[in-house]
Amino acid sequence: MIKKILFGLLSLVVLFVIVLFLCDYAIDYATKYKTYTSTEKIPKNSVGIILGTAKKLTNGLPNAYYANRIKATVTLFNAQKIDFILVSGDNGSIYYNEPKTIKKDLVTAGIPEEKIFLDYAGFRTLDSMVRAKHIFGLDSATIISQEFHNDRAIYIAQKKGLNAIGFNAKDVSGANGLKVKVREYFARVKVFLDLLTNKQPKFYGEKVEIK
């Protein structure tokens, strides 16, 4: 009896690992050649979408993912490969506001304030992509984040009718980078669950024209 239970548990673990790798492969395959690291090679889009993250880690240290996304956005804008920037992130409380913080740092870096639009309801990558299409009226866009995140965002965008490419911010190594990479496997499984259940953004709201 115990052997049957152990075999059943082992089978479930093996099945789950297979699902993890299949979801990861499906997203990588579908988004191949859709991300860029060079401003010379990347096609121009009117709008670049920077995906939000916290400026600091839970231990109070600077978040390299955040800093690298800011740098990538400024680089892309200065290369004239985007004309406007849509900042999409979490605005969950009066004490935590990713879009506002990112906008402040982009303006400090020299981006004109009138070129920056804010999506305060980008609580998840799915929310950001769907809202970019239906609230901000985008048919195409350049997503700015790390490559693994860009791949997932592009895959969701494709499924939701938004033609997207990605500009890859510098990745992060070390323990923090490894933790994020492991978490990404589970996030990719969640992508397919969301698509199967037709998951919708937390909020929609009034339409905003970027111009």
What does this structure look like?
The longest helix has 29 residues, at 2-30. α2 links the parallel β2 (47-51) and β3. Helices cover 48% and strands 14% of the residues. The chain is an alpha/beta fold. The protein is globular, with a radius of gyration of 18 Å. It has a single domain, classed as Rossmann fold, CATH 3.40.50.
Task: Name the features.
211 residues; alpha/beta; Rossmann fold; 6-stranded parallel beta sheet; globular
Please, how many domains?
1
CATH topology: Rossmann fold
What share of the residues lie within helices?
A: 40-55%
CATH architecture: 3-Layer(aba) Sandwich
What is the CATH class designation? Alpha Beta
What is the makeup of the main sheet?
6 strands, parallel
In spatial order, strands of the major sheet run 1-6-5-2-3-4
Low-pLDDT segments: none
Shape: globular
**Helix/strand/pairing category:** alpha/beta
Distance N terminus to C terminus? 67 Å
Rounded average pLDDT: 93
SS strand fraction? 5-15%
Radius of gyration: 18 Å
Order of H and E elements: HEEHEHEHEHEH
Got a strand count? 6
What count of helical segments does DSSP give? 6
